[in-house]
Specification:
four-stranded antiparallel sheet, 10 strands, 3 domains, Alpha-Beta Plaits, 752 residues, alpha+beta
Amino acid sequence: MFSGIIIKYRWLIVVTIGIMTAIAVSLLPKLTTDVDFSNFFPEGDSEVAYYKDFIERMGSNDHFIAIAIVPGKSVFDNIFLSEVEDLRKSIETLKHISSASAITSISRYIKTPTGIISLPYINLANNDRLTRDSVIIHKEYEITQSYISDDSKCVIVLLQLERDIGQPAMDLTVTLIENLIEEHNFNETHLMGKKLVEIHYQRLIEDELKRSIILTIGVIILLLYIYYRSVSGVLLPLSSMIIALVLLYGFLALSGRSLGIMSSLFPTIILIVGISDSIHIITKYKLESGRLSSQTEAIRIVIREVGLSIGLTSLTTIFGFLTLTTSKTPALKNFGIDASIGILIAFIISILLIPAVLSILPFKWYKIQSLDILKWDWLSGKIYEIAIHQKKRILFVILICLVLSGYGISEINTNNLQIKNIPKDHRLKTDYRFFEEQLGGSRSLELAIEMKGNASLSDPAVIAEIRKLHVHLQQDNSFRNVISPVTWYHWISKVFDRSLPPLEVPDSEEKIRNYEKRISGFRKNSNWKVVDESGKFGRITAKTVDSGRKEIQKMNEKLNRWITNEIDTSNISFRFVGMDLMIDRGHEHRINNMIWGILIALIAVALLIGILFRSYRMVWITLIANTIPLILIAGLMGFTGVELRGTTSIIFTIGFVIAVDDTIHFLSRFKIERSKGFSVKDSVRITLLETGKAIITTSILLFSGFIVLLSSSFGDVFIVGFLVSAMILFALLADLFLVPLLLISLLKDKQE
């Protein structure tokens, strides 16, 4: 009946899809990207909620961009410093820059009989004073450390961005900053900042999408032509899936959904997975049209025998991607939803458009196929013989692989270095390394300070406790550029008492509060605070190298133990916060959620197989054949040193739901042959002979499509391409050798 509707309304189907595609194309300019790192934070997490409240009160480190400038000769050169100041002033005039400061613009404040006056640390008008200025700068390094390296090899221009800048405005601002830096022709410059990284990720995603689409289409054209040896055999499935991809992007634009970091996978998922369904339809149509004189009857048989299996495989794939919605991470949740919508669109296009076009246009097919060149009839017979007569060898090989994989799994690295995902040849990589090696690190250690009861941060006893921690961090080689409430109170106190030693403050809270009140008019940056106005909240921040999530976790635990043992916390509490810590929590959550996602996918597939075949043996065959590749991939990760990260953890879900499709096609065909009265062994042999062709073809296509991702400059996307390709290869071997073995071993001639 369904096939009759498609044939009857074939022109309406083609025209309707054509109109929808035209509308989708018109919506593409409205498609946006969103690479905000906060999308990878777990929703409902208490630490994330506290962090958001903290930055709302105290300001965020993430709205800063640091420009490190290395001179050709010396930092303390009047010409060089004048260029730095000129750059700072130029950037400060940009629309979305809240402030721009450098060693050339900051001042020290001194109390005089006539009031408080400011003296610049660098007097550009007097070149002879640079040597004396340099001495003062290093003497007061706890105040100037944010603007010059401790070895005086570079200076830093610190930019603070306005809050809540949209992506287009942020992109333009970064472009203008980069252009201004280029105009000044410095010897060497390096930039760092979370918002800066987000913009570069956004640009990379746009480039990745273009390259991914072009390469994927190129691979599809090549493989389809090799397989079908006809232009029509290439154009029909390819154009159908390009339409599906355009409809997906059009839907995302219409619904206001944005592309994320993982969106570069969409072309591969939609084009490759969708074309796999197309191949099953066209291969079956080609077979039936060669047997039957009626084109209409051939289409009816295709929809009846293949439609159910591709519908089921699409359903399992959709369910698999929907398991990502169980994640509390918005980025993964949105990726799962968008990918599911894309698979649904691809299925609808495959089952409606391709049969409609086949019923309208006469296609001529060449008899020679690539698999005929491989003598598929002979090869399928050999596979059948191996499955029957070499059971013990097959099981022994699988057992050895599983044992080796078990060892590999124990070696999986989950340390999660942030630098891993940055493209190798991108400037960000160089900048990260510079900040890591020369400026104390690319990560921030950040501690929130909260007072208990009536205690205040300006209490000298409290300051003394914080000073212990401040000094401890300074003496620990893991940290640089330590800033704390002690820094703030020492700075304002030194305005009134130049004799104060480093990090010392008056012993009177009343005097400290009086100093703070008198200096408040000189406090320029009210958006980022070390101590808030109430004196109840503060922060400690420092730079540290990116040693990885696990190592940072150990370092934080060690520091927490030191605080517990050495600091009197009766009036004060400390809590780890910061963007870097939240990114780590996102990784940890997604890794922990991975097992739950795979389990849901397994249950969903088991239920669907159970409903379709009404046989628990078929369920076990499907799960065994597709769980083994998962274990092998996990072992491969351990042996190759691939990090299990928040983003790469999705490969198990993606790989499973894609790989299980061919198993379902195999079992569906097996069921059809059994319903015709063939024995279990004959049904397996016929299934290998006929469906085996399509399975190998689609597996080659899937493998080649994901191999294309190895061209990605994103580390995580590269890894997804490598591991999913390997999983498809393992799953193909399981479908060709293990599934026939299990069918013959577990099913009897009068029992399914």
